[in-house]
Amino acid sequence: MRQMIRERLEELTGVRTNLFENDFLLTWGQSEADLRAVLLTTEILEHFYQANLDARAFRGGLAVSIFRDKSTRTRFSFASAASLLGLSLMDLDETKTQIAHGETVRETANMISFLTEVIGIRDDMFIGEGHEYMAEVSAAVAEGHKEGVLPQKPAIINLQCDRDHPTQSMADLMHLQKTFGSLKALRGKKIAMTWAYSPSYGKPLSVPQGIVGLMTRFGMNVVLAHPEGYGLRPDMGPIARRQASESGGSFTVVDSMAEAFEDADVVYPKSWAPYEVMRQRTEYLRGGQADRLEALEKEGLAMNEKHRDWECTEELMATTRDGEALYMHCLPADITGVSCEAGEVAASVFDRYRIATYHEASHKPYVMAAMVLLNRFEHPDRVLFRLRSQALPRHYLD
Amino acid sequence: MRQMIRERLEELTGVRTNLFENDFLLTWGQSEADLRAVLLTTEILEHFYQANLDARAFRGGLAVSIFRDKSTRTRFSFASAASLLGLSLMDLDETKTQIAHGETVRETANMISFLTEVIGIRDDMFIGEGHEYMAEVSAAVAEGHKEGVLPQKPAIINLQCDRDHPTQSMADLMHLQKTFGSLKALRGKKIAMTWAYSPSYGKPLSVPQGIVGLMTRFGMNVVLAHPEGYGLRPDMGPIARRQASESGGSFTVVDSMAEAFEDADVVYPKSWAPYEVMRQRTEYLRGGQADRLEALEKEGLAMNEKHRDWECTEELMATTRDGEALYMHCLPADITGVSCEAGEVAASVFDRYRIATYHEASHKPYVMAAMVLLNRFEHPDRVLFRLRSQALPRHYLD
Amino acid sequence: MRQMIRERLEELTGVRTNLFENDFLLTWGQSEADLRAVLLTTEILEHFYQANLDARAFRGGLAVSIFRDKSTRTRFSFASAASLLGLSLMDLDETKTQIAHGETVRETANMISFLTEVIGIRDDMFIGEGHEYMAEVSAAVAEGHKEGVLPQKPAIINLQCDRDHPTQSMADLMHLQKTFGSLKALRGKKIAMTWAYSPSYGKPLSVPQGIVGLMTRFGMNVVLAHPEGYGLRPDMGPIARRQASESGGSFTVVDSMAEAFEDADVVYPKSWAPYEVMRQRTEYLRGGQADRLEALEKEGLAMNEKHRDWECTEELMATTRDGEALYMHCLPADITGVSCEAGEVAASVFDRYRIATYHEASHKPYVMAAMVLLNRFEHPDRVLFRLRSQALPRHYLD
What we know:
The structure is a homotrimer of 398-residue chains.
Chain A: H1 2-13, H2 32-50, E1 62-67, H3 73-85, E2 88-91, H4 103-111, E3 116-123, H5 130-146, E4 155-161, H6 166-180, E5 190-194, H7 206-215, E6 221-225, H8 236-247, E7 250-254, H9 257-261, E8 266-269, H10 275-287, H11 290-305, H12 314-318, E9 326-327, H13 347-362, H14 364-376, H15 380-390
Parallel strand pairs in A: 1-2, 1-3, 3-4, 5-6, 5-8, 6-7, 8-9
């Protein structure tokens, strides 16, 4: 294990990234080297953990989380990443505190950052809001750092916005890399990112956007499938197409789950809300139009109902490559007959891949920690080499 | 102090327990060696603290708490235990998050455990729920660990369930051991676990169950006293009787506080709800029968009112061994004329033992930490020997 | 930097304070040496941080926060101080827990303190409550420590009460010291602590009280300005006057913002509620008189409206010393046309000093940490000398 860590670290030394003191908000805004550095560092941190090596690159300092939406999984992943690195978690709970919107963001961002190394933000509910908010916080702490208010510039980690969910998609990429053996092995593989039925309303679009925005960079044949009206942000198509053409892969949009599943190596059936409905919802919310919001929710749910047949069944799975495509999900899934009457996936399919989806999720804390290290240190390889040499046990061996 | 630590550690080395990677959910499910190991480790950790020795056996990792009932004391005890061991506390607040019941427990348990060393759970409100929930979480993380999802198997700590309150009863046992000099000195001592009047409704049964379930193992004469209708879980009687007979003690149930107090060495007057009322409440809650719940609460309170004379008075205290029985309480007590008009204990009695009850409570953080160490390390004695040799000051001496 | 730390530490060694195990609740209750020790230790900790030196004087233990009012800034400052010193933060959220008032405070204070090094309390909403509550908690843990329940006596840190806001005023003093070069340079400088208009109701009086209660000790000419009816606690005048006379400064109360600003070196325009209204509010609240409270709020707001002209404008700023007085604020400010229609300060004035107010606030985490060190260690200079010799990097240099 320690030999493997050395090899990966030497590899990391060779990767030139632009990540130091730069915020990684959208995977499609980052170079391939940046992505490779995150994957490598994630892998190294996982090896550190398994080898019982202390990876605390910090001796105190805050990791601040801001969740503008409910969350269990992401909340715990971020807390785990903070603890792994030696940081103290501090949640900015907007219901408890005085943070507002717009102008005061700049001030609050600085007030919470005097000893802060990282701010993780989840803000995925409103179209045109989440990413902008993160960019605003990022600019605010950059100014504070430049003006000498903040001795350090905290890294901003996108824990899910309205556009991308990079810690999820990078964890998914880790999972693919591990399942197929390497990034190279992904070339030519077909991945079906498809909409699936759910009885609930308003699921964010950031997961499908994140998947097509990332997987098109590795020569994969990415097929996006959804019923009419469930398209992603309009700018995602061009981004995915350009990336696919550069990487030697492809990007196709179809309106049939069956077509997407055919001969697929990987399937990712997952519900999301229609972009237009989400956009309108944001508008009504800004305008305080409660009655229209209610009508919109009914409309959205009724729209879903027409597509109850978009379910990942055993029959569909049988049509994938050798009937054995890798099933993926960001969890929690809507499982037919388990978590709901009818949902995204048949119980027998989910159950076969249940443990695999747990493995998929298990990369997230390390992805987050990797992003922090790459942002906060100019030479994270040296930091990790030092931690490896120091070789403090994470827990006391007995 | 360091010599005393060495002696206790050598004693601990000699105790063969079954605690490594096994969850300690009910004291009556554990061997006497297990109990002795917890007591010894608790004592050692207390000595570490007093000797200003760092006891952090972990360098990072999460201690997760799940409180399904309000709590101050237990919450802070668990946080203290986590800090003592070098773990980062993370609370799973079900109102903030997406955790539900039943099927999703398995998934959530794994999702919060990637870097988790311990999960402390308090779930004491519903008969037939709390223990089962803990067992479910325990099985879920055991599966995750077996399948390679979790590099470690988090310890599950029972912070109070519907059956037992082992961190309380073990702290109480520590208190008895300290007060009377040794475990052996408890043989033949009479302890009166008696119901007492309280104006409040629905107090859990886990404290009296925990006391009769634990103290019958040390040759004590345990007398349980309560008015008609206030019996414990039906299985507690047989357990207590069997244990008492094995340990050379006795277990008696009486319906008079006076009888229980007579010549008692220890008295533990404390209110609890009738088992049948609690059982029915759980049923109504499951069925969503709000009107019946309200009627049941009224009934329960009216039932209490009939027994306002069940109060630990000076008169009753005078009938105990030399009039000087040790008064115990898990706190907070309902003190007549202080926290309520009429309650469990007379103000003058409570006041005389107030500091003693603080001492009684003070063992809880160490009991919890001891349970974590014994569960997470195969040879906790070696871990503690190393920490003792290393001898880092807990705070910088000046 | 390390040389500067040595010099300051040698200076600290020479200061005889009364702070060890004594709670610093009101600046006017402390000696000048105490204040100087806090300033020096604050400065040293800031140098530690900038020099990337680990300042964790503790290896585990709790820092408990109790916020009886909303807070972002103070909450994060306290969390930062805890992390800086190696303590684990634990918030006592009274809505989640069983803490009540009066008698149970004593018990709860001990129950949360078994491994606690510091309790930070913010309780500023009710006249005659906050300071008393802190004193009560302080006495409770002192008793617990004396009785052997608590191995250590936690420091009580006043994070704002109804009388004083010492972590704010000490941070403000740090800011003045830094701006003017030294404490001595403050002699003869004029500081205008003036009321300013705000559209909101019920702002605490602790900031203006804290400023006049502290700045009168350093030979400053302190002018307090407010409209009729907005006087501070009646005892503040005598305190400020006595201190000013002892320090060779002065204390004047005027009823005109213009008069206060004239030739001022420093201006601190900030809204607060009238003492009488706050006093009455507390009474109505205690009596549960909701209708009267509502009427009182209306009255208070109407009273404010008469003084909309109390705004820190460019015109007023022009009348200060060379038109360049230092503008101060504890943040967040009510900025005209930004956070409200009409407020405490003109947008252009605030914007010019915005970064300066961030610097002003940046001292708070270090002031809090300094107060903890001085309270918990008899020879904090030795502790800091050891940490400096040990010279562990706060984060791993790369």
